[in-house]
Amino acid sequence: MSTINRYAQQISAQVLSNKRVGQYHQILISVGDVVKYCRPGNFIAIAVGGDNSSMVLRRAFALSRVSDRGEFGGTLELIVAPHGSGSRWLCSQGEGALLDVVTPLGVAFGIPTEPVTALLIGGGYGSAPLFGLAEVLKSRGCHVDMILGASSSSKIYAPLEGKRSVNSLKIYTEDSSSGIPGRVTDSLEEIISEGAIDVIYSCGPMAMLSAISTIAQSCEVVHQCAVEESMACGIGVCMTCVLPVRQDDGSIAMKRSCIDGPVMDGANVAWEVVGKIQETKE
Amino acid sequence: MSIDLSTTLGPAWFPTPIFTASGCASSGRELAQFFPLKNIGAVVTKSIMVKARPGRPTPRMAETPSGMLNSIGLQGPGIDSFIANDIPWLVEQGARIIVSIAGETVDEYATLARRLRSVPGISALEVNISCPNVENRGMVFACDPVSSRAVIDGVRRIIGGDLPIIAKLSPDVTDIVAIAREVVNAGADGVALINTLLGMVINTETMRPHLGGKTGGLSGPAIRPVAVRAIYQVHQAFPKVPILGMGGVRSGRDAFEMILAGASGVSVGTATFGNPRATLDVQEELEVILTEKGFTTLRSAVGFAHRQDRQDRQDSPEMSGE
Prior knowledge:
The complex is a heterodimer of chains A (282) and B (322).
Chain A: E1 9-21, E2 24-30, E3 43-46, E4 59-67, E5 75-80, H1 85-91, E6 98-105, E7 117-123, H2 128-139, E8 143-150, H3 160-163, E9 168-173, E10 180-181, H4 188-194, E11 199-203, H5 206-218, E12 222-226, E13 242-246, E14 252-256, E15 263-265
Parallel strand pairs in A: 7-8, 7-11, 8-9, 9-10, 11-12
Antiparallel strand pairs in A: 1-2, 1-6, 2-5, 3-4, 3-6, 4-5, 12-15, 13-14
Chain B: E1 7-9, E2 12-14, E3 18-20, E4 43-44, E5 61-64, E6 67-70, H1 79-92, E7 97-101, H2 106-116, E8 122-128, H3 145-159, E9 165-168, H4 176-185, E10 190-193, E11 197-200, E12 202-203, E13 208-209, E14 215-219, H5 224-237, E15 243-245, H6 252-261, E16 265-268, H7 271-274, H8 278-292, H9 310-314
Parallel strand pairs in B: 3-16, 4-7, 7-8, 8-9, 9-10, 10-15, 15-16
Antiparallel strand pairs in B: 1-2, 5-6, 6-14, 11-14, 12-13
Helix pairs in contact in B: 2-3, 3-4, 5-6, 6-8
């Protein structure tokens, strides 16, 4: 067997609950034993639209929280923004609905072996996987600070129970509707130095990840980011979700964000040429 | 159930007629978690070129009604790495292998054929002369009968008679039968029908083409009737030339439709993106359908829709469509 997609299973998962949280839906699904292979940073690919749907591609969502306890056995929580026809279909699925899912997929966030001071940065509902990550880091004795940003307060995803899993939480909104006016990167250098941050974990729009990478590199802080590129398959066969990543020899390779990511070392991503790699010419 | 699903493409024998489609299964490793690759007819690998190639800029994908556009641009590791890493791994899995090759010039196809001819474990070559994701549309050999002939002729000379050559053709031509005639005359053992159709999506927010490469190849169930038509036409013109059918197959019923049109084998492509098990699912469903229709061999169903005997057709009412 290959090591790619090693723990992934295609299973039928039942919707246990589907709640609106601000602009998002918090969907809890029952997945059984596969949960023991699910880690923060992994994602799930869900078929949408039912049998003979005209939507031929799965939709990928970061696992927000993973639980192997409770009356339903293994469960996964997903945060879904009903933006397109596929995610709207998913958000319309009520309790008891069965979903065709493939999970866990992708590279998870690396968890330090010793307690560190971690800064978690989320943009929009990119904060979803960070709360599950925060719980894992806290359980390993890490100090966890979190900063979240969005254009407006309604786009911040920060559930009450999630706030309990971090030591501090700062919120930034561009329209000043809540928290600090501005962006997560505005005072990032000070936050890194004052908080003696060892590692940054981030998830959100690519422009934000790119900006964080620049600052993290200048501050010499490790930066693990969960990237976002549109995917067709989620399992590594279609080659659509590629990103330019610097290799050890200095060359740039187009890496699949589904199986070589979504979590990547921000310092290795060649952000300046994302979407610009051209075919080689003889 | 003891139906004989075996099929042949020229001298190559396969236990079942259901294959992956090139570009939709990479080199198989990613799918091995979802089903044993040896259980399907063959793995058709992603078109390989002489040199490693980064492909086109992102975005490379747009979902469309019952389909998708892709603009990958033949990203791949190059033939040396492919022969060193991918073929031995597939052989180890017990998979049958059809290697898809693509070049920018007639010579490049010949070079690829030279590199592959002595590699053990390969059942056939699919010569992709119809990838739409290239900068210069002139590179789409399959749009021109003379270029098509030149590529197949060059590969045939190098391969000799042992390894079957299947020419993959484009539906974006006025007369696909004319192109098929050229490649068969040049020595192709069979034809693969169809590659994607050239398409475009414009993002109405940015008001610019959505794909980094501007145009892309349309695949998925949306193109299936085009594929069925092409298979039907080519089978009608050359009933003895084996056809590997593909284009929007996602169920056993769809594969059966292509077999009725004249396909001896069927590749499952885009459906794998939505369902990693799609190739095996299609194969299992096809076996049930063939049995229900009373076929005892796959071979007896190939081209069945061409039969003039009306009674045969009335016995199979579901063949008229969905």
